């Protein structure tokens, strides 16, 4: 099963509203990353939050991390049509001896103009 | 600085054939990882190469293989293609692949198996 699981699977909001996506993970982590993927394109790294950080900001993005609940949230403020994309959280895991970046299933965000 | 380049962007093959996908990482990046993305399974890690050596491997059959050249460019090969291999194959590079380094993705190769 996926290390990270995003919630909700899909989110549709009006332009200008805030969008919040959540991610839960299973094992201990050193950091958690968020990525964005526009339709038909590769993933773009948005932000990384370390396990000793509780909150991090980057422009209109705000990420929180609660290691006690093994969860993270990504908030996009004042959303724009260009924010329409899928958003993934990712954590590094060691599975069957292999160290790899494990992605959740993603949240598909639609911003309506 | 040029981004990660994957070729070709689209590929159509039939069952039983083999295919080779190419990835040129960002200049200076020595770690290259490959992922398979499908609607049903999401993003799944295939393998990672660093300094021409496979450093990590995901849970895929031996039909999936790869290699990395001295200039860090990487190729992925899939033999005896099956219908279920239809997917978007993504390549990502980072400086050394150490935890915490962001991965820079190419736009992928869309492989369709008929």
Short description:
Chain A is mostly beta strands and 113 residues long. Chain A is built from no helices and eleven strands.
Brief descriptors of the model:
heterodimer, A: 113 residues, six-stranded mixed beta sheet, five-stranded antiparallel beta sheet, B: 114 residues, mainly beta, seven-stranded mixed beta sheet, four-stranded antiparallel beta sheet, 11 strands, globular
Structure explained in plain terms:
The complex is a heterodimer of chains A (113) and B (114). Chain A has no helices and eleven strands. Chain A has 113 residues and is mainly beta. In chain A, strand 7 (61-66) and strand 8 form a beta hairpin. Chain B has 114 residues and is mainly β. Chain B is 0% helix and 53% strand. Chain B contains no helices and eleven strands. Chain B has strands at 5-7, 10-13, 19-24, 31-38, 42-50, 53-57, 64-68, 74-78, 87-94, 104-105, 109-113. Chain B is globular and about 35 Å long. Chain B starts with a strand and ends with a strand. Chain A binds chain B through residues 2, 30-31, 33, 35, 40-45, 48, 50, 88, 92, 95-96, 98-106, and chain B through 4, 6, 33, 35, 42-43, 45, 48, 56-59, 90, 92, 99-100, 102-108, 110.
**Count of individual helical segments of chain B:** 0
- Which chains have the largest interface? A-B, 26 and 24 residues
What is the helix content of chain A?
A: under 10%
Alpha carbon gap, first and last residue of chain B? 37 Å
Low-confidence stretches of chain A: none
Round the mean pLDDT of chain A to the nearest integer and report it.
Answer: 91
Write the layout of secondary structure elements.
The complex is a heterodimer of chains A (113) and B (114).
Chain A (H helix, E strand, L loop, with lengths): L3 E4 L2 E5 L4 E7 L5 E7 L5 E8 L4 E4 L2 E6 L4 E6 L8 E11 L2 E6 L3 E6 L1
Parallel strand pairs in A: 2-11
Antiparallel strand pairs in A: 1-3, 3-8, 4-5, 4-9, 6-7, 7-8, 9-10, 9-11
Chain B lengths: L4 E3 L2 E4 L5 E6 L6 E8 L3 E9 L2 E5 L6 E5 L5 E5 L8 E8 L9 E2 L3 E5 L1
Parallel strand pairs in B: 2-11
Antiparallel strand pairs in B: 1-3, 3-8, 4-5, 4-9, 5-6, 7-8, 9-10, 9-11
């Amino acid at each position: 099963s996926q290390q990270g699981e995003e919630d909700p699977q899909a989110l549709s909001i009006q332009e200008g509203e805030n969008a919040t996506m959540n991610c839960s993970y299973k094992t201990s982590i050193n950091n958690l990353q968020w990525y964005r993927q526009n339709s038909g394109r590769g993933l773009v790294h948005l932000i990384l939050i370390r396990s000793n950080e509780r909150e991090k900001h980057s422009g209109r993005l705000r990420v929180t991390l609660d290691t006690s609940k093994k969860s993270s949230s990504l908030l996009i403020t004042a959303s724009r049509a260009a924010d329409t994309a899928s958003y993934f959280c990712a954590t590094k895991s060691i599975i069957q001896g292999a160290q790899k970046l494990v992605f959740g299933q993603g949240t598909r965000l639609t911003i309506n103009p | 600085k040029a981004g990660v380049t994957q070729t070709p962007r689209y590929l159509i093959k039939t069952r039983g054939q083999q295919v080779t996908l190419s990835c040129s990482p960002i200049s200076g990046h020595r770690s290259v990882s490959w992922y398979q993305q499908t609607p049903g399974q999401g993003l799944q890690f295939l393998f990672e190469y660093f300094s021409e050596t496979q450093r990590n491997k995901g849970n895929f059959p031996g039909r999936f293989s790869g290699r990395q050249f001295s200039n860090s460019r990487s190729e992925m090969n899939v033999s005896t293609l099956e219908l279920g291999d239809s997917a978007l194959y993504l390549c990502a590079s980072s400086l050394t692949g150490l935890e915490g380094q962001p991965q820079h993705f190419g736009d992928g190769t869309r492989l369709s198996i008929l």
